[in-house]
Design goal:
The complex is a heterodimer of chains A (604) and B (354). Chain A has 604 residues and is an alpha+beta fold. Chain A is built from 18 helices and 20 strands. Chain A has a 4-stranded antiparallel beta sheet. The longest helix of chain A is centred in the middle third of the chain and has 35 residues. Chain B is globular and about 60 Å long. The interface between A and B is large, with 97 and 93 residues.
Chain lengths: 604, 354
């Protein structure tokens, strides 16, 4: 046993009263990837005092991609993620198109947009109702909050006539894993939406028909018919699904006053934009701000509720990758500077992804020092000099927020008038009328609003797909069926791609030298959300959202499930083939701690 | 006609209940777990909810779908290692890193060791669980042969399960490792293999037929090309020279003629999607030689010109040439091993061994 265990952890000394109990969840289940969450909880005050987020997997993409053919990069980077790999492939294709100086034919762009829309529809759907949804199901609520279950049985569902469930308890019952009928229905929905994806991009989750320059998809009449018919089924489904989730989430605020504080965080949201418009997008870096504004989900950085920028060039040049608690050697002095200035002449920092060198340094996990394979991406706010720990709000919250504040999207099916709202119109379907849903900027960036935004974004993606398929079919009907633009790989080039992975911001930065990959750094959403404390001591967003989180669970330390913490972490839609572990320590009192546990490194 | 002695619906399975302990903490993307949620033949509900006659009751422990979290979830792993979760099928997703090439730390881990406070490596879990498992399935190309994360120049020394346990490994029930490759695994291929093993455990099927690479024969016995509906273009010497063409893709990177996979027959989901049948070049993602022996993916495979040039005249000779290439791509690169030296080409500076 290490000698230092006799000393109370430093962080604990600052707490005057109450017994701090170390609780951890490792692995956090019902997410994608490997995440551990380690906390200290003050049960007397019903509050989380401290939180650490750790990831237990390292694979080394940026290392093994060096010297490979740049045309392989979308095939390779798709394998980063098993649920949104196609987002990576798409983002890589965007970055390659910039580097090769090409744009795909319009039909190819619409096909990619249709594929990516299907990915959002599928992935948000399965996460919302088959993974995070279980946190809101009857089984779970009975186990963690019996009094809330009592209330749910008496609570009439306001939109019962839309979704068919009379009470909130009926909804919760339908969400029980495997047994619940809505759970099973959504699994089925996740399948036909993936079929829609396969129609456009070949295979889920690693696409077969996506290439720089376009797609190999054969644009037959049938491929679009097969997509469209499934799309109408999804629209019909969303007309039940969205009111169902509104009822469920509103109930949590009513049943547990103060629940808005769960997972509440300062509004620090980033969105890198999604869905290119072939009429404006030419993949030229110099015009990137213009075509960024043309995206059908607007990019943007939102700080304290205000839009700081929606220019992709600003977003790009101010990205910084920090260390502080990660298992890597710093590259700032030793690594090569690949890109000194961007094509517009803006200086590029040594800690920017274009100039990053990944140097793994495996070591023991020590929560007082280094404890994660995730690095700490930050966005430098030039106004204040702060390295902001932006989060993605799980993806949808930041997307809707940035789109609503920018007021640039107006495509008939979706409209952001610039008044803080986004309206989403789903046309008439077999048994449901033409319906418009309106999302309004919420009062909080918290657990419930991250989850609610996900449902609204499912509808948003569905509405966009109606627009994209009209555009695609117009190309086919006009005989413009070209789907590929030939290209040559240049000897020297740089490129960057900006996209929205399902759970948030995604960028790929590529440097080509001698026709080979000299440097390649993807930044998916989870490093932004799941990162550990940076060199300035700033905690990552999961850590920040969980620290200070009030506990509403009715169980004490002995049979504590950590449901409020789990809901909070899951509200970010963790996807940690780059991410966090939470481990329930069985209620060990820190001050009586005589056996080494995971947080023991804090004593040093 | 005489009724059989006992119909399957009335026959109690030889084993009443079985656990499926599914690890996603190899070097993976979790794409194989996500893939099984897409399966419909059978679906995961069909298996877990007992829709198919004759099967034991199945308890699935998979982190992507589990109700439990953290310690409650890990308890199944500790029980399995202690021989208290009998019988179980172990599924591994992701390649196994080489934890021997550095002095401390971990590449891949799951759960925390209560004695040390340090993560328990995935390899250690394999060491603990493999001797207790009735059968082991390696799901996806990372787990079977190493896959993407075992590419040349990789920093972790990643390898497939059989490279780690040995190709001659047998479970306590005498079963070899069952490899279901694919990147990710084709949804129904994986669920059907699991279904077969459940039949076998129930006493309803003979030992699963596997080929030299430990793949189910009925799924991987044919090449992509043999099942491809663009084969007619090939036969006529009519080739695509650009992506987006409906013709045969062998001149622009398709490796279908030498790759063992049924995707062109089965499609990706319920017959929808796939690879060369829908315009995607075959990059050999089911193969032991993946990815290295197929890169750069978008170039014409070596020998493609020859075999596509003499099509029609020398069928027998083409088969012989393809046989040679097929054998080559059915071999893994030599750097996938569990030795103490990293031989992938990456030169580490901070592994604490130099």
């Amino acid at each position: 046993m290490p000698a230092d265990l006799e000393t109370a952890p430093a962080a604990m000394k600052s707490v005057e009263s109450g017994d701090l109990v170390e609780m951890s969840w490792d692995p956090v289940t019902r997410i994608v990837g490997s995440l551990g969450i380690y906390t200290k909880i003050d049960f007397a005050a019903k509050k989380v005092v401290e939180c650490f987020s750790t990831s237990s997997i390292f694979r080394g993409y940026s290392i093994f991609m060096q010297n490979k053919d740049p045309r392989d990069s979308h095939f390779i980077t798709s394998r980063i993620c098993g649920i949104c790999g196609d987002n990576h492939a798409t983002c890589s294709v965007y970055a390659q198109q910039m580097a090769y100086g090409i744009k795909p034919p319009p039909l190819a762009e619409w096909i990619v947009n249709l594929g990516e829309a299907a990915e959002y529809m599928f992935d948000h759907n399965i996460f919302q109702d088959n993974l995070v949804g279980v946190d809101f199901c009857e089984m779970m609520v009975k186990e963690t909050n019996p009094s809330v279950w009592e209330k749910a049985q008496k609570a009439e569902a306001p939109h019962a006539k839309d979704h068919g469930y009379r009470t909130i308890a009926d909804i919760m019952h339908a969400l029980n894993p495997f047994e619940g009928e809505f759970y099973r229905e959504t699994l089925q929905v996740s399948r036909y939406t993936r079929e829609m994806f396969c129609l456009m991009e070949g295979r889920h989750v690693h696409p077969s028909t996506l290439y720089p320059g376009g797609v190999g998809t054969v644009p037959s009449i049938q491929v679009f018919t097969d997509y469209l018919v499934r799309l109408t089924r999804y629209a019909e489904f969303m007309k039940r699904c969205l009111p169902l989730h509104d009822d469920l989430f509103d109930f949590f605020y009513e049943a547990m006053p103060g629940y808005e504080e769960v997972g509440n965080r300062r509004v620090l949201l980033g969105c890198w934009g999604s869905f290119q418009d072939p009429n404006v997008c030419d993949y030229n870096y110099k015009t990137m701000d213009d075509w960024g504004h043309g995206m059908f989900v607007t990019p943007g950085i939102v700080v304290d509720g205000k839009l700081v920028t929606n220019n992709l060039v600003d977003i790009n040049v101010n990205m910084r990758i920090l260390l502080g608690s990660s298992y890597y050697e710093d590259w700032a002095d030793s690594g090569e500077t690949f890109v000194k200035t961007d094509p517009l002449g803006n200086p590029i920092d040594k800690r920017h992804p274009w100039n990053q060198t990944t140097i793994p340094k495996p070591q023991k996990r020590n929560f007082a020092d280094n404890y994660s394979w995730v690095m700490s991406p930050r966005w430098l706010d030039k106004r204040t000099g702060d390295h902001l720990a932006l989060d993605t709000g799980g993806g949808p919250l930041a997307r809707l927020w940035a789109t609503a504040l920018s007021g640039l999207v107006d495509i008939g099916y979706v409209k952001a008038p610039g008044d803080g709202s986004v309206s989403i119109r789903l046309p008439k379907t077999a048994t449901k009328p033409d319906t418009t849903f309106t999302w309004n900027i919420p009062k909080w960036a918290n657990t419930i609003e991250r989850d609610r935004a996900r449902t609204y974004f499912q509808a948003y993606a569905c509405a966009c797909a109606y627009y994209f398929i009209e555009k695609a079919m117009a190309e086919v009907h006009a005989g413009r069926t070209q789907t590929f633009t030939p290209f040559k790989v240049p000897d020297e080039a740089i490129g960057c791609g900006f996209h929205e992975a399902v759970r948030g911001v995604l960028s790929h930065h590529l440097v080509i030298r001698g026709g080979r990959i000299a440097n390649y750094h993807p930044y998916p959403p989870t490093p932004w959300n799941a990162n550990p404390r940076d060199v300035y001591g700033t905690p990552g967003p999961y850590e920040d959202a969980v620290q200070g989180c009030p506990i509403f669970e009715e169980n004490g330390p002995d049979n504590f499930k950590g449901i409020d913490i789990m809901r909070t972490v899951r509200s970010f839609d963790p996807c940690l083939p780059c991410g966090v572990h939470m481990y329930l320590g069985g209620g060990k009192l820190l001050k009586q701690q005589h056996t080494p546990t995971a947080l023991m490194g804090l004593a040093k | 006609m005489k009724a059989p002695d006992m119909i399957i619906a009335d026959r109690p399975p030889d084993v009443k209940e079985i656990h499926v302990v599914w690890m996603t903490t190899g070097l993976s993307c979790d794409g194989d777990s996500v893939s099984i949620t897409a399966a419909s033949l059978p679906s995961i509900e069909d298996v877990v909810m007992g829709a198919i006659p004759g099967l034991p009751k199945v308890h699935l422990h998979n982190p992507v779908l589990a109700y439990e979290c953290g310690d409650d979830f890990m308890q199944h792993w500790f029980d399995a290692a202690a021989g208290k979760l009998e019988p179980f099928v172990l599924v591994l997703e992701g390649s196994l890193p080489n934890e021997n090439i550095k002095s401390e730390g971990y590449w891949a881990a799951m759960g925390t060791d209560p004695d040390t406070g340090q993560p328990i490596t995935t390899n250690e879990w394999i060491d603990r669980l493999a001797p207790k498992a009735t059968a082991i399935i390696a799901a996806g190309t990372c787990a079977t042969y190493g896959g993407i994360h075992a590419m040349e120049g990789n920093p972790t020394g990643a390898m497939g399960l059989a490279d780690y346990l040995g190709w001659g490994w047998r479970s306590k029930a005498g079963l070899p490792i069952v490899n279901v490759p694919g990147c990710p695994v084709q949804p129904d291929n994986m669920m059907e293999t699991l279904l077969y093993l459940l039949y076998q455990v129930a006493g309803l099927a003979p030992i699963i037929p596997l080929d030299d690479q430990l793949r189910p024969q009925w799924l991987f016995g044919k090449t992509v090309h043999e099942g491809c509906d663009r084969g007619g273009y090939y036969e006529q010497g009519d080739f695509a020279h650009e992506y987006g063409s409906p013709k045969c893709l062998v001149k622009i990177g398709c490796w279908g003629p030498v790759v063992n996979c049924n995707v062109t027959k089965r499609g990706w989901m319920d017959g929808v999607g796939g690879c060369p049948n829908v315009g995607g070049i075959c990059i050999g993602c089911t193969m032991p030689g993946f990815p290295d022996k197929f890169m750069p993916f978008m170039d014409e495979p070596p020998g493609g010109t020859l075999s596509s040039g003499i099509i029609g005249t020398y069928g027998r000779m083409i088969r012989a040439l393809r046989g040679i290439t097929n054998r080559t791509v059915n071999k893994e690169p030599k750097w996938r091993h569990s030795g103490h030296q990293l031989t992938t080409g990456y030169e580490p500076k901070y592994y604490g061994r130099n």
